[in-house]
Amino acid sequence: METRHDSLATLYRIKFIFLLTFQIFGIAISLLIFWFFLTHRALLRDIRHQAILLLLGNNFIQLTCDLPMPIYFYYIGHVNPATSAYCTWWTFFEYMLDVITALLVVVITIQRHILIFHDSIFRKRITRWLLYYVPLLLCFVYPFILYMVLIVFYPCDGLQWDYSSNVCGFANCHLVYSKTLSTFDWAAHNGMPTLIIILGNVSLIIRVIKQKRRHQQHITWRKQRRITLQLLAVSMLFLVAWLPGLVIALIQQTIDPNFAIDFQRNYALDLVYFMCIFLPWICIGQLPRFVQWIGKRICRKRNATINIVRPM
Fold it and tell me: Omega before 135 cis (within 30°)?
């Protein structure tokens, strides 16, 4: 028993160091990207960047407001303060921000198809609002209303929380006491987005390959390559973060309730934080002008330092 406790404490310490380190890097990179776009306002008007910036903005909220709670949990080894109110608001922010991210990736996946193959649709103001901005807005409004109802205002005595587990054991009343609501929440907000993202990316790859072979088509691969690679990179990160936990949960629901339960509790559920901490790095790789901008600023400061004339 003591050995198990020691190994768990070691695992918690490793998670704490890992999450804290990449949280700091993620915040720093995100701030640099925001600074870059503030100093390059013309890029903000490019519709290809706006959805990714919204995704990065939501991710920044996760880095600064949500991620500190699991980091603190892994530092002390238990939920503090151990109150129902704290767990209610923690899970509300955790679920809401995660679902916002999932829905944004789904919408971006669909919109990238339009940008690559039917970009003229977004040139009209009415279709741009209906097919681009309204879906992005709903990605924020819907999860907020949903989890206000399911978590904050859901009637519950607050005795079901597990204060020895991360995110209070994910023991929300609608998940613990309602099979219908828990199945709906899992299927609609975790399973379905993942399935759409997989199908969307597979179909995109197939369409791009077919389009490249049709020389008479207007699409040029070089022009649209960055949009395609950006979507694939973000989608792959999302799938790495979410797919293992979803597969395990599906097997538990359909075959064996105890399948890989320790791996799920200790590792798979924490993979979702990969999306949060590594998304800024993915954005760097898809913004060559940002990399050039950083390089120029570094060279400028280095040259300024070299050119300083010291008094004799």
Answer: no
